[in-house]
Amino acid sequence: MWFAGVAAVAAILAATPAGAGPAPRATAAATLTAPGGSALGGSWQRWASASLIPTVGGRVTVRLQRCSALPRAAGCVYRRRPRTIYIRPGVRRPRAVLLHELGHLFDLRVMNNRDRGRFRKVMGAKRRKWWAGRIPLAEQFAEAYSFCARYHRIVSIGRYASYRYRPSRAQHRSVCGLIVAAARDRVPAAPAPQAPPVTRADPVPPPQPPPSPGTVPGGRPRPTPTPSPAPGPAPTVPTVPPLPLPLAP
Asked: Distance between CA atoms of 71 and 156, rounded to whole angstroms?
């Protein structure tokens, strides 16, 4: 999805004692709430808390309703509401959708242009703009965030990812590392330039890999060798009865 609106967003700085300097811009996990501030039911908070990379700090409101501007979207974030996520009720692969949208919030509230430049470099897309083109880098970053939040390492995620996100194993490690570094550095956050004024729909993610411990299976499965049949019993050789000996004359 694309962020709507043009309002500038300031960096997130946690409250710190005077003279202590700014605190890191993200924490281990966001606190997800329903509209009105009550705890969000279901598995949503567990999925956010299980993230292997930092999320935005503080509260994030999750509205389990269609985006008003894009009712067919799986999820969306409005730039004028940088702490609210919309997720379509009954969406398939809700965990992947949630983490993709949290990736957009991380981009909006934590990242700066230096961080985005690092992502461009890792992906070999130095000349691509963040929000321009048929597949914006911002969408590939949100998809990268979703997979970094779930898997320490990958084999191949081409058939699982949206927006043609096709990282190598080395690229996956580098992207996850730069997300962690972006959460720890003290350079103020800055919204990406040239963000479009309207949103566009995020598709429903393709079928996701099984929740194996930190590894995405990928590539073609190795053929299972056909077991050789167990040897049967040795063939029985029929016994021939001995011929009677001739009697002496």
From this structure: 32
Residue 43 domain-assigned (yes or no): yes
Whether 64 is in a domain gets the answer yes
- Nearest Cα neighbor of 173 from 55, 52, 56 is 52
The domain of 211 spans: 26-216
Write down the pTM of the prediction: 0.75
The pair of three-digit structure tokens given for residue 98, joined into one six-digit string: 């949630």
- Sign (positive/negative) of CA torsion 11, 17, 20, 23? negative
- Beta carbons of 67 and 94 less than 8 angstroms apart: no
**Total domains in the fold of the chain:** 1
User: Following DSSP, what letter does each residue of 162-181 receive, concatenated?
Assistant: STT----HHHHHHHHHHHHH
Tell me the DSSP string of 114-127. Answer: HHHHHHHHHTT-TT
pLDDT digits (tens, 9 = 90+) for 111-153: 999 999 999 999 999 888 898 888 999 999 999 999 999 998 8
What is the DSSP track for 46-101? HHHHT-SS-EESSEEEEE-S--SS-TT-SEE--TTSTTEEEE-TT-SSHHHHHHHH
Domain for residue 207, yes or no? yes
- In-domain check, residue 235: no
